[in-house]
Design goal:
alpha/beta, 228 residues, 26% strand
Length: 228
């Protein structure tokens, strides 16, 4: 069984890592990873060793360099009172570039456009949530880790069906970076639109615990079937 690891840029709007599928001459499922603020494409890609090798994995890097090999998708600022704000226009730009990345992956690699999964952590989670709800025709499954649903970057059109979407959402109850209650409250957008999802909480901070990872992997394996 062969697995390829490459560092690519090509036509995608973001620098990215790829692990090609072990399948030959058959379109494979596609998993696109979107890291959190201050991280990079290697972070979530470390999960790939536990992910079935029939899945093509693309891990994107944000195009805003922070420091020490850390990147972001949009800037976040704090004022003197500790109030947080962010660049909504850049967040929308990054959201749309992720959509373009999906299209380019379908064009460049032998992947199944009807079997697309997005995985995001923190800021990356905000973006994959927005991509799926704004462009549901592009996505099947979403793994949303330690993030939330931000209505400022989500455009839900009633003419679009959200019924095929499935979300795995998890959050740490001790998260001080993105508070647990804020994340949980933001799930209302899924309830209002009757989107299929599961929500799991773990007694951790801003991260993914071993139990969280096992549960997420089980969910993903059930959702992403291997082509026959």
């Amino acid at each position: 069984m062969k697995i390829w690891l490459q560092l690519m840029n090509n036509k995608l709007p973001f620098y990215h890592l790829i692990r090609k599928s072990s399948l030959e001459n058959i379109p494979s499922p596609l998993l696109i990873m979107v890291h959190g603020y201050g991280s990079n494409e290697k972070d979530l890609f470390s999960f790939s060793r536990a992910i079935p090798d029939h899945i093509t994995i693309i891990s994107l890097r944000g195009d805003i360099e922070i420091q020490n090999d850390g990147y972001a998708w949009y800037n976040i600022s704090l004022d003197f009172n500790g109030n947080k704000s962010y660049d909504i226009a850049k967040a929308l730009e990054s959201r749309d570039k992720i959509v373009k990345s999906i299209d380019q992956c379908i064009e460049m690699y032998n992947v199944d456009k009807k079997n697309i999964t997005l995985m995001g952590f923190s800021q990356g989670s905000m973006l994959v949530n927005a991509v799926a709800l704004s462009f549901p025709e592009k996505v099947n499954n979403v793994i949303s880790l330690s993030g939330a649903f931000d209505p400022n970057i989500i455009d839900i059109l009633k003419i679009k069906s959200l019924k095929k979407l499935s979300f795995y959402v998890s959050h740490g109850t001790q998260d001080e970076i993105l508070p647990f209650e804020l994340s949980k409250q933001s799930l209302e957008i899924l309830n209002q639109n009757e989107v299929n999802y599961i929500f799991e909480e773990y007694p951790i901070g801003h991260g993914v615990s071993p139990d969280n990872f096992k549960s997420m992997l089980k969910w993903m394996n059930e959702k992403i079937n291997s082509p026959q």
